[in-house]
Each structure stands twice: as structure tokens, then as C-alpha cells.
Amino acid sequence: MANNIKFIKGEGIRLYTPENEEYIDAVSGTFNLSLGYSHPELVDALKKQVEDLIHVSSSFTGELAQEVLDSILDEAPEHITDGWMRDIIGSTANEGAVKIANKFNGKSEVLSVSLSHHGQTLFTTNISGNAFRRKSFANTITTNNAVIPAPYCYRCPFSAKGPDCGYLCAEAIHDYAQYGSSGGVSCMIIEPILGNGGNIIPPDGYFKKVREICDELDISLIADEVQTGIGRTGHMFASEHYDIKPDIITLAKGLGGIGIPAAAILYKKEYAVLEKFEHSYTSGGNLLSLTASQKTMEVVSRPGFLENVQVSGKILGDFLYKLKENYPVIGDVRGIGYMWGLEIVDKDGAPDVDLTNKIVDVALSDHKMILRGSRYGFGNVVKVRPALTATQDDIEEIYFRLNKIFSQL
Ligand SMILES: Cc1ncc(COP(=O)(O)O)c(C=O)c1O
């Protein structure tokens, strides 16, 4: 999204230019501002931390890191009891998760699904199911990892029809473990909702099947909750809501609340296998990240906070379904909580990437609203993911502007 707009102030879901023009951000930055712009409680906590002490090495932050981890683990699925806070971005948290699985089961290969996105380091570019990002980087295509078909019912890779499809996309794990790899599949990594790939929500029963197959083949299951975690779906963890039962969960984005980089890896007790020196970064678990994570957890865990995301998310969904009834270019509406996508199609039902990009562009230029397209302009899903603090009035305003955009186009 290249443009010349400059923002100097933000509040909630609103951004302001030097001329005090107001824009609405319907996608909360890159879906990382769980608490919107400049949430006052986070700003106060961070200001105090900056005044007191900005940085000490992680040799001296262990106690605080554990406190923060405990507050996250309190809300995590019951079987997830341990964690690691030595990352600040999702890409390296996912790499850490793979290291943990590799060390735990002594195998090395990774399975992921097409249309997935797990980061942009060389390794996470390799394991992500979006090959267009690998084109110029030979290092990302040399290992033995495999990508299996996505659980994308709207455009089923097997042209099957649910609910009796037999979960062919999950069954593919067998084939790929046997033929696509050298036989040493260590783990499978999957987003509970494929975020960048197009807000793809797997069908009921998919994760149960995946878990069964992973158990059968001794494959560790990693839920990449970098987008879905910390309340995005109206539930603290999508893994819990969809009963995924992962062995490892990764978090980033929303954990930092207002855009402070923060990440965590959570896992079952027996997965606590890493030595400190095996996965840590200079800025991992720095004081500002920990402060932001701690305050974010406090705010999101408050009674009523996630209930509001559920209720208002339902209202947002109803508005989007209404748009679909009125505008045939919307082929499918998918979402939960504050994580929604509109699949844009041409008159034959094929993906309309040009129109998708136009919707995003016109929203910004004519309606002062920030949207994002899937796969950063190569895909056909318009994403709507406001900050979790968005009120029902904010949701109505987003709908109002979306309606104007679709009627204009
Ligand atoms: C699901 C998912 N995993 C991992 C990442 C990588 O996170 P980061 O950009 O913080 O490295 C992203 C980023 O978009 C993501 O959406």
C-alpha cells in the first residue's frame, strides 16, 4: 500500500494527518494493534517504563518475563503450561517453535499448508505456503519441507463438497509425510484461520482430523496464533475455541497491544527442551515488550472485554453478509470476532484481484478508510480486522463506508 499520506497522531481506530484529516483504520495496522492506537493505559505504563529503565539484558528480566508468561498461560488452553519470551516478532517465534519440535522429537522436516504465512526470515519464507515470496531467494527452496493443500472449502483444492468430503486436505498429510518428505517430518505448523491467505476458516472437524493424523505419525502440531491470538477471534486463543489441541502455540502481533513488538512461544510441559543459548535475541523479551504485553493481557482479560468482541463481531459479520446480498462481487464472507474477509469475484465467480486492489485503493483515496487485500495485492480477499477496542459505533462507521465503496464500484 504505497502512498504519500503521513499520520502524526492516532487514537482508537482513528488516525490523523498534520492537517487534522481523520482516517479510519479498519485493519488495526497490520492486525497487530489489538488495543488500537495509543491506548492510554498502555501509553502510561510504557511512559513510566521509559522513564525508569528502557533496557537491561535478558539476564536480568527473567522474573518479569515469567510473570508475563504466567499471565498469558493463565488464559491458554489447559494443557499448555510453559513458555518462552525471547523473541519480539512472529517469524522468529515460529522458528523457535520449529526448533523446539525438532529437539523434542529428533526429526527435522516441517509440513505447512498452502496459502499460509509464517513469516519472512529465510526459514519461515521456506515453510510458508505462498511460493511467490520465494522467487528471488534460492536458499528458501532447498530444504525438504512440504506444503499440503489448504482447508479452503470455498475453492476446495479437491473440488470436494462438505460435510462428507472425508477431509481430503487433512488426509494429504499421510501422502506428503510418506512421499513429499524424506520420512522425518517433525512438525506441522498451521494458522487456526489462514490470515494473509484470505481469512480461510477450516471446516468443522478438520483440526480433530489433523490432530489424529499428527498423533498417528508422531508429528508435533504448532498453532501459529500470531494473527488469531490475544482475542482477535473474540476468544483469547483460537486454538481453544476450535479445540485444536496444539503442542506449541506462537504469538506476536496483538500481544504488544499498541504496536510494541512482542512475541511468545507457549507449549506443553514436556516441550520445555530449549537451552537459553539456543533461541534468544538481543531485543527478545526487552522491558518495553514485556511492559506492553503485561498491560495488554491485563486489558484483554478483563471481564466483558472479549464478550464485546464476540457481540460486536457478530454485528460486523451481519453487516458484511448484508453487503454480500447486495453486491454480487462479494462471493464469500468469512470470519469470527474481529477477523473477517470478503472474497471478491468476477461475474464467473473467479478471483478478481484487480477489483480487490481497487476496493482497497478507493477506500483510502475516496473514503479515508484503510483496508488490506490478501497476499498484499496478489489475492482477492478484502480484510476487515479493526482493533479489539472498536465500539459498535466504529463498526457501524466501517460498514457505512464499505457500503459506499461497493455502491461506487
Ligand atoms: C500468521 C502469521 N505468522 C507469522 C507472521 C510473521 O510475524 P512477523 O511479521 O512479526 O515476523 C505473520 C505476519 O504477518 C503472520 O500473519
UniProtKB/TrEMBL annotation:
Q: Which residues form the signal peptide?
A: none
UniProt keyword Chloroplast, yes or no: no
User: What cofactor does this chain's UniProt record say it requires?
Assistant: pyridoxal 5'-phosphate
Q: Name one Pfam family in it.
A: Aminotran_3
Organism domain of life: Bacteria
UniProt keyword annotation of Transferase present: yes
GO molecular function (one): pyridoxal phosphate binding
Q: Which keywords, in A-to-Z order, does the entry hold?
A: Aminotransferase, Pyridoxal phosphate, Transferase
| CDD domains, per database record | OAT_like
Q: Which family does it belong to?
A: Belongs to the class-III pyridoxal-phosphate-dependent aminotransferase family.
What is this protein's record name?
Aminotransferase class-III
